[in-house]
Design brief:
Elements: H1 3-14, H2 18-54, E1 61-64, H3 68-71, H4 81-89, E2 94-108, E3 113-121, H5 123-126, E4 144-148, H6 149-155, E5 162-168, E6 174-185, H7 190-195, E7 196-200, H8 201-207, E8 216-221, H9 227-235, E9 244-247, H10 248-251, H11 253-291, H12 293-301, H13 306-342, E10 344-345, E11 356-359, E12 362-365, E13 367-368, H14 374-391, H15 393-400, H16 404-409
Parallel strand pairs: 3-7, 4-6
Antiparallel strand pairs: 1-8, 1-9, 2-3, 2-5, 2-8, 4-7, 5-6, 10-13, 11-12
Helix pairs in contact: 1-13, 2-11, 2-13, 2-14, 11-13, 11-14, 11-15, 13-14, 13-15
């Protein structure tokens, strides 16, 4: 038997018992499809976490005055931020950069004051899809400010209300002025919703005596994977000499660890493929081998080498596994493609479950949009192929050790 004829015979033998082969293909294919779908959910959830983390609050990299992240003192500022932001934006890998001011203050509508955090920012830079003002009903301008949704509810604020803000300037002076509420904003950042008063950067610089200064420059890369390179490029700029420039992985290492756990979970899911493929292939090939004892004995008696018998059984197993994997891959890719467009709302699976969950200060949606990585398809396919060959070792060894005379007699 040549290699081609061995393959043809193996494929023909596979379909002698169509029901048994069909059940094995169904088990392998369904497992492969479920694994790809689960992998798609894990990948989609990891992507959503990265987008949430790097989007409205952290960005892909940040620049600060040394020590500011530790104590957040008002006077630890970056000078000449306009030049620094312009220099950062010249990097082709950067999609945007904007300066921010973070100033603790007291805000009052009437007699009662509330602790707030005034955020000075650039509206045009923060209005994009990944910015803090992405869902804002208006942009802060001049004496008009935006108030976080939870803070507005606590203070009973509505659009047009007057808000008195009192704080301390970076030079130690008293900072106070009257503003009006231009709108109420809900962001993915829980702290902003609970305590945020969002103000135009120039107005915040004037209020807190910080001319052309800021506490932070948020940098957004065109590609998430360029975050470290973008941070390194910004750190090398003469405009940021002496500043602390970090990418998001160094700013929030705990979130990176959580994402790594989600990604590693994929490896455990592959065990399902191994188990399903091994069970389906081993059972099918053992039964097929026992049913063809006389036929295999006749082949051995006619001079067929045991190695050919082993190749025949292994090829049958491989054909079974690969066919099941192809069917499962097609189904899995289709399901992931459909759910990527519609999303999977986990809150709908449990009655009364919230549509968002808060984790480490970020509000994360319970709706996940699965996405499939080529590595998932390749790994799942190889897992089935390797398991199919491994599961065929015992049936192939039994077939190769048959005594021709005894096998023919049955």
């Amino acid at each position: 038997m040549t290699g081609a004829s061995t393959l043809r015979i193996a494929w023909r033998n596979l379909w002698r018992n169509r029901r048994r082969t069909g059940l094995a293909l169904g088990a392998i294919g369904l497992s492969q499809a479920l694994v790809l779908f689960y992998g798609g959910i894990l990948s989609g959830y990891a992507d959503w976490m990265v987008e949430t983390i790097t989007g409205p609050m952290l960005g892909h990299a940040q620049a600060h005055a040394p020590g500011w992240r530790k104590d957040r003192a008002m006077d630890e500022t970056l000078p000449h931020v306009a030049e620094s932001v312009a220099a950062i934006r010249r990097d082709a890998r950067v999609s945007g950069a904007s300066a921010r001011i973070y100033a603790p203050a007291l805000a009052a509508k009437g007699q009662q004051g509330y602790a707030v955090m005034v955020l000075g920012l650039t509206p045009e830079s923060e209005s994009g899809r990944a910015g803090l003002l992405a869902s804002a009903p208006a942009a802060p301008s001049g004496k008009g400010v935006l108030v976080g949704s939870a803070l507005a509810a606590l203070m009973d604020l509505a659009r047009g209300d007057t808000l008195a803000i009192v704080g301390q300037g970076a030079d130690g002076s008293l900072a106070n002025d009257l503003y009006f509420v231009a709108g109420v904003v809900a962001t993915p950042v829980d702290a902003v919703n609970r305590q945020g008063v969002l103000m135009e950067l120039g107005e915040a610089q004037s209020l807190f005596a910080m001319p052309d200064e800021a506490h932070e420059i948020v940098i957004r890369a065109r590609r998430t994977e360029d975050a470290a390179a973008v941070a390194a490029g910004a750190a090398a700029l003469p405009e940021l000499r002496g500043a602390e420039v970090l990418d998001w992985k160094r700013i929030a290492p705990e979130m990176l660890g959580l994402i790594d756990i989600v990604n590693v979970s994929w490896l455990f899911v592959l065990v399902l493929v191994f188990i399903a493929a091994a069970a389906g292939v081993a059972n099918t090939m053992l039964m097929a081998t026992f049913e063809r004892v006389r036929e295999l004995g006749m082949l051995l008696a006619l001079g067929t080498r045991p190695a050919r018998i082993v190749a025949l059984v292994v090829l049958e197993s491989l054909a079974l596994g690969v066919t099941g994997a192809l069917l499962g891959t097609g189904l899995g890719v289709l399901v992931v493609w459909i759910t990527h467009r519609t999303g999977v709302d986990f809150s709908a699976l449990v009655r009364g479950s919230p549509s968002e969950v808060a984790f480490m200060g970020m509000n994360m949606s319970m709706t996940v949009f699965p996405s499939l990585e080529p590595a998932h398809v390749i790994q799942g396919f190889l897992a089935v192929a390797v398991t199919s060959v491994a599961a065929s070792v015992w049936p192939a060894a039994r077939a190769a050790r048959l005594a021709p005379a005894r096998a023919i007699r049955g």
